[in-house]
Q: What sequence folds into this?
């Protein structure tokens, strides 16, 4: 539908609305109950979360019943005065019934195509049961693995997260979110939620405007450029101003600078929490602050419902402010086609849930996100050297746990445990013994085996919202199990299933083979088994830095050089015990084959303000089996008006190479790729020298230099 006609229809409808009906559109409630019937009839509700968000994704949710949603929609459309349809929302984060890896695991694929497809599958399944709006993608940059919600985002880097954010928006919304198999997406949690002190969820964030602009905003900017229909304001404060009352963010940057014309919803109860933050005296004040800052929809606090009309009548809130919010909400509903088609055809939905095509997509994504961190002596893939295999460990038999956090509609019976998949995938002639809980039983079985696969890691309830940790080793008891088995001097393979990076320093030094999967979703069992037996060649790359200890946090690759660059000598940035280096760097991952980089070429030594420099290298598969390599391009701005990171990812490409095959991989660099928040508070690139590196991760590769001959102002 044309924007012009939508705007006309919005204005016509708005002109007919009472103030109470306008406030109703700005009110979101939880699961619709009998108590809401009169509110729906009177137009006092605009949308509903079809889930009990009080459990923040850690709880099985009542299934979505399309007939029930259609009945609520009928009530709104046929029995309210203006017949404005309801928006039905839900946290469809990494799958609806077919569960994909958690977003951190999807980021480990470094494949925007797989992320887009996963979101499209989730949209197809959720829209089919009457959901219109998902509170995803979560695009918060996370550099602190203590934070439980690192699981829900795309890692530590703005460029990788931006690519995934745009891909997810495209997947959820398609070209037209009104299509029966698409959802309206919601980029969250705007913004810098992942920078909370101590990695404690909801805690204080105090980042500079420069860090906000350079690190935490780009992924939201990418989502807005991709056409995301909505954003969610976060719980926390930034520098003393809670985001949900922050007009600089919600209006100044989001609307005036970026031109975002979609709607902003608060996070759950975040409007009322302005009282806890100590910036609102009461719920009336909270409603006033939030609506003036730019929050269009109040998620479940009731502050708008209870106070907004009176605030307008007492001139504490301009009527025009409410009208602007209601326009954005109505525009969203028109964009979703809800006025034309408010009801969901409930015949289609059941046939596509967890269908073979969706399951295959989830399995491919799970496989592509598996990261091979160690493989000393080529222990993997399992093969002829092993005829008696033991598989054990706290997650070897896990099924529902493989889903990870924020899985509301996953069904455990859809999931095969890793141990079962290993047993089914093992080649003829190999006996596989799956051993349960007792350590001495595991040791006894291990003594009679050739190799041991130990599956360790985290329960999803260690991960996700409100689940931050202050230690980064394996959960209690698992480290001892690893050490006990390592002492048996049997070839030991560790499979780690987690919702975050963990500091497995001892394990990385003593266990010859380590496969890592961030909660891989419903198809994690087959994917891990395929990786163990070499039916797939692991190709995941770390979307986050792996630390050696919790004491190093925050630790990320695009650090500043400081005036005393890290080294092990005294008067430099270092620890008097332990290393300042990560255990495994951002972008790292091994393969069952090997890739070599050669022949770095730059098309020019100088980039003009309106020009570009092509940077290329040859990547060759020098091993004996095909494999995917993620070729990464990093840049360093050697001298700036402000300090600049020692490396910044600027582009990446995942390529498949056959044994012996070499390919020239070329990237195009332009001034826009060099832009940052300069000293004068403008976005742009600065003239000067840059190093550029093409390589397999954040610390290795072939390096060259070029010069940008003029400063270039850019649109952020
Ligand atoms: C939660 C989360 C947010 C989610 C919302 C609705 O508290 O912070 O990510 O979308 O509430 O469930």
A:
């Amino acid at each position: 539908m044309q924007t012009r006609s939508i705007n006309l229809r919005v204005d016509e409808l708005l002109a007919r609305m009472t103030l109470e009906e306008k406030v109703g559109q700005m009110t979101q409630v939880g699961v619709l109950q009998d108590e809401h019937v009169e509110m729906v009839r009177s137009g006092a509700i605009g949308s509903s979360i079809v889930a009990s968000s009080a459990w923040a994704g850690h709880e099985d949710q009542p299934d979505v019943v399309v007939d029930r949603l259609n009945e609520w929609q009928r009530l709104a459309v046929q029995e309210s005065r203006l017949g404005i349809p309801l928006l039905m929302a839900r946290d469809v984060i990494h799958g609806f019934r077919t569960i994909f890896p958690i977003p951190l695991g999807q980021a480990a694929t470094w494949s925007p195509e797989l992320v887009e497809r996963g979101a499209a599958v989730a949209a197809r399944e959720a829209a089919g049961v009457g959901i219109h709006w998902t509170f995803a993608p979560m695009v918060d940059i996370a550099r602190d693995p203590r934070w439980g919600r690192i699981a829900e985002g795309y890692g530590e880097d703005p460029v990788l997260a931006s690519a995934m954010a745009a891909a997810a928006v495209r997947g959820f919304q398609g070209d037209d979110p009104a299509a029966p198999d698409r959802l309206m997406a919601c980029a969250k949690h705007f913004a810098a939620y992942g920078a909370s002190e101590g990695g404690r969820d909801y805690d204080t964030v105090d980042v500079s405007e420069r860090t906000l602009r350079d690190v935490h905003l780009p992924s939201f900017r990418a989502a807005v450029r991709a056409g995301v229909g909505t954003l969610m304001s976060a719980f926390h404060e930034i520098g003393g101003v809670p985001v949900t009352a922050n007009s600089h963010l919600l209006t100044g940057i989001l609307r005036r600078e970026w031109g975002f014309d979609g709607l902003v919803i608060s996070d759950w109860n975040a409007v009322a929490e302005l009282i806890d933050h100590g910036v609102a005296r009461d719920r009336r004040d909270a409603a006033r602050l939030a609506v003036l800052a730019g929050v269009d929809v109040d998620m479940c606090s009731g502050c708008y419902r209870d106070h907004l009309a009176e605030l307008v009548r007492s001139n504490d809130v301009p009527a025009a402010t409410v009208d602007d919010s209601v326009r954005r909400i109505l525009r969203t509903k028109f964009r979703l086609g809800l006025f034309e088609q408010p009801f969901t055809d409930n015949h289609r939905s059941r046939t596509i849930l967890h269908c073979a095509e969706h399951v295959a997509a989830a399995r491919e994504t799970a496989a592509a996100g598996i990261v091979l961190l160690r493989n000393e002596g080529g222990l993997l893939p399992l093969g002829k050297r092993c005829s008696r295999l033991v598989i054990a460990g706290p997650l070897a038999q896990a099924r529902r746990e493989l889903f990870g956090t924020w899985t509301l509609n996953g069904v455990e019976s859809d999931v095969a445990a890793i141990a079962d998949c290993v047993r089914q995938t093992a080649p003829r002639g190999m006996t596989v013994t799956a051993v349960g809980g007792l350590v001495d039983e595991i040791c006894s079985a291990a003594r009679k085996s050739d190799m041991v696969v130990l599956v360790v890691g985290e329960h999803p309830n260690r991960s996700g919202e409100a689940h931050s940790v202050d230690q980064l080793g394996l959960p209690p008891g698992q480290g001892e199990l690893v050490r006990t088995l390592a002492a048996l001097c049997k070839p030991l393979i560790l499979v780690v299933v987690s919702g975050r990076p963990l500091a497995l320093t001892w394990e990385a030094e003593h266990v010859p083979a380590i496969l890592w999967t961030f909660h891989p979703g419903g198809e994690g069992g087959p994917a891990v088994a395929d990786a163990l037996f070499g039916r797939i060649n692991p190709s995941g790359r770390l979307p986050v830095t792996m630390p050696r200890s919790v004491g190093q946090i925050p630790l990320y690759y695009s650090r500043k050089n400081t005036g005393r660059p890290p080294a092990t000598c005294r008067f430099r940035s270092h620890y008097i015990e332990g290393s300042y280096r990560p255990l495994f760097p951002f972008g790292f991952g091994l393969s069952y084959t090997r890739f070599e980089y050669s022949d770095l070429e730059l098309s020019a030594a100088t980039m003009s303000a309106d020009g570009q420099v092509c940077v290329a290298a040859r990547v060759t598969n020098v091993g004996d089996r095909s494999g995917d390599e993620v070729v990464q391009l990093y840049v360093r701005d050697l001298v700036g008006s402000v300090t600049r990171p020692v490396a910044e990812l600027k582009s990446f490409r995942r390529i498949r190479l056959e044994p012996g095959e070499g390919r020239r991989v070329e990237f195009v660099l332009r001034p826009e790729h060099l832009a940052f928040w300069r000293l004068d508070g403008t976005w742009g690139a600065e003239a000067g020298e840059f190093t550029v590196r093409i390589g397999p991760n954040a610390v290795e590769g072939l390096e060259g230099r070029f010069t940008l001959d003029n400063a270039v102002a850019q649109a952020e």
Q: What stands out?
A: The pocket of alpha-D-glucopyranose is lined by residues 49, 53, 56, 91, 135, 188, 267-268, 465 (CB under 6 Å). The CA atoms of residues 404 and 688 lie 45 Å apart. The mean pLDDT is 96.
